Amino acid sequence: MTEKQYLKNLTVPAERVDVVLDTDAYNEIDDQFAIGYMLGNKDRLNVKGICAAPFMNSRSVSAKDGMEKSYHEILKLLKITGNDELLRVVFKGSDGYMPDEKTAVESDAADFMANLANEYSTEKPLYIIAIGAITNVASAILKNPAMKEKCVVVWLGGHGTHMPRPASEFNMQQDIAAARVVFGCGVPLVQLPCFGVVDHFVTSKYELEYWLKGKNTLCDYLCENTVKEADSYAFGKPWTRVIWDVTAVAWLLNSDSRFMAETLIPSPIPEYDHTYSYDEKRHKIRYVYQIYRDALFEDLFGVLGSHGCDKKI
User: Fold this and answer.
1) For residue 39, what pLDDT is reported?
2) Which range is least confidently modeled, 92-96, 102-106, 146-150, 232-236?
């Protein structure tokens, strides 16, 4: 790929593009917002598949359990939104994390992305939006190294480079080996850092209830889930909740920088001690450094409220 084409692939596409979403949908409540936002932008985003990413925390007993729960949450969201035609392109992902930087974790999701990439080219790439551990994507690249010439990866992962331990963010720290593969292989990469950048994308109970409640089944599901989750640890107190996964989808819609500001930086090197190291000679990645919170929420609420879904959960 020429440098000119590489940099072009790191700019927001002007036309409708094909996308794959890789998501740990059961991990938090923000993945569901991202899925709804993606499905509500069909004029710009043609969804080719949705993959379930692994995760392990208090909501799962293992990475495999987290992936399985995410798989079923994806199916639920598609049924709620009336997108039953996409049920056939939902794939189970990795049941664990990469043991090293040369060994792919086998999964239907990795095979799907590795094979689908062959239908694309440098001039017409496939866009992979990743909002969980990057295991599935890194495994697909290891299985089909040509992907780095035919895809663009948009990942919400890592913290801002100005933070003390920027690689300690949940998505990244789960699988540092996979992050090193993606940051090091040369695929056009857009990074949306969490703490220090995207953590500004927060909302409150009253805002959610004003803009979403009663609009449709999806909006009620998102509103109720978010309020329930936040009240579980902050009931009776003022709270806001970050909905940061939405921003990865929003980058593909960021024409005229309406939702976020970005720049080019040498690709950081995620280290196993959860820091970054740097080499100014490394290839460039697109780095988002500011979110225009109000503009993006205005668009998000409008898109979610316009879903024509009426299916009961």
Assistant:
1) 97
2) 232-236
Q: What is the pLDDT of residues 33-53, one digit of tens each?
A: 999 999 999 999 999 999 999
CATH number at 3-201+243-305: 3.90.245.10
Q: Which amino acid is at 93?
A: G
Read off φ and ψ for residue 195, nearest 5 degrees.
-60, 135
Look at residue 309 in the predicted model and tell me its pLDDT: 53
The burial class, CB within 10 Å (0-12 / 13-18 / 19+), for 20 is: buried
Residue spans per domain, the chain: 3-201+243-305
Of residues 2, 35, 252, 19, the one with CA closest to residue 116: 19
pLDDT score at 311 = 41
Distance between CA 201 and CA 194 in Å, rounded? Answer: 10
Question: What's at 195, amino acid-wise?
Answer: F
Phi-psi region of 150 (alpha: psi -120 to 50; beta: other; left: phi over 0): alpha
Q: CA 178 to CA 215: how far, in whole Å?
A: 40
Spatial distance between the Cα atoms of 213 and 230, rounded to a whole number of angstroms: 16
- 10 Å CB burial of residue 244 (0-12, 13-18, 19+) is buried
